[in-house]
Write a structure and sequence with these properties.
By secondary structure, the chain is of the alpha/beta class. The chain contains nine helices and seven strands. A seven-stranded mixed beta sheet has the order 1-3-2-4-5-6-7, sandwiched between helices. The longest helix has 19 residues, at 155-173. The two termini are 32 Å apart. The relative contact order is 0.16.
């Protein structure tokens, strides 16, 4: 199975960036990033149950999925400096993949954690996971603002996407990081100033995930601040400092 997609192959780029979508997200969310980040070859992770993998059952355990992704990206991560950018749930997946790669002797160059509380703050809530019915999922999507509200009134759209969005929400609700050795790579945590779900304290706690350099950036916008203004300058500036 193919865990990542690359829309803009750039075999001679000096660096690689692997992007991890939010809950319910697909690689298409990052489809324009390859053209914008000329110094990188940009890959985007495709979770099971959506896009080209729509026929597959969605993942049920985040840490297990992360280990599979780590095994898939390890060979390419060894070829050239590789950074991860994870948004919302994707930040937690990216972190778990980074931990797995470090344990295997393949540290990444940089982790960008976007719109997510630090993993050590998350606690598994199995009862909460069971309450993610269609109404609760739609309510959360409206709150976060990442989905066109009109689409949520389209039965065909709802029937298509709610199964895997709900599976992602339940998977994240069942996640608990446990103890992890701090990463060696720098970590940059990003959050929208008007994010209704993620506060600055939860984002600042990413500092504890690394013994490398840590930076926190607060940007204009809400939970999906990067849809209008992707943080390309922050990513490129980090590469220039390596």
């Amino acid at each position: 199975m193919m865990w990542t997609q690359c829309i803009e192959p750039r075999p001679f780029a000096t660096r690689r960036l692997v992007c991890f979508p939010h809950a319910g997200g697909s690689p298409y969310f990052f489809r324009t990033w390859g053209k914008a980040l000329s110094g990188y070859e940009v890959h985007a992770v495709c979770y099971p149950g959506r896009a080209e993998r729509i026929a597959e059952p969605p993942a049920a355990d985040l840490a297990s999925m992360a280990r599979e992704i780590a095994a898939a990206v390890a060979p390419s991560a060894a070829e050239r400096p590789t950074s991860f950018f994870g948004h919302s749930m994707g930040a937690i997946v990216a972190y778990e993949v980074a931990c797995a790669l470090e344990e295997a002797g393949h540290p990444i160059e940089h982790l960008f954690a976007s719109a997510a509380r630090a993993p050590q703050l998350l606690r598994a809530t199995p009862d909460t996971a069971a309450t993610w019915d269609d109404e609760a999922i739609i309510g959360k999507l409206v709150e976060l603002g990442g989905t066109d509200a009109e689409l949520l009134h389209n039965p065909a759209f709802v029937d298509l996407v709610l199964p895997y969005i709900g599976a992602d929400f339940r998977m994240l609700a069942g996640y608990e990081s446990g103890w992890r050795a701090p990463l060696r790579c720098p970590v940059t945590a990003l959050v929208g100033r008007a994010d209704p779900q993620v506060g600055s304290d939860g984002v600042a706690a990413w500092r504890e995930t690394t013994r490398g350099e840590f930076r926190m950036r607060t940007l204009p916008g809400d939970h999906f601040y990067l849809a209008a203004e992707p943080p390309f300058d922050i990513i490129e500036a980090a590469a220039g400092e390596q």
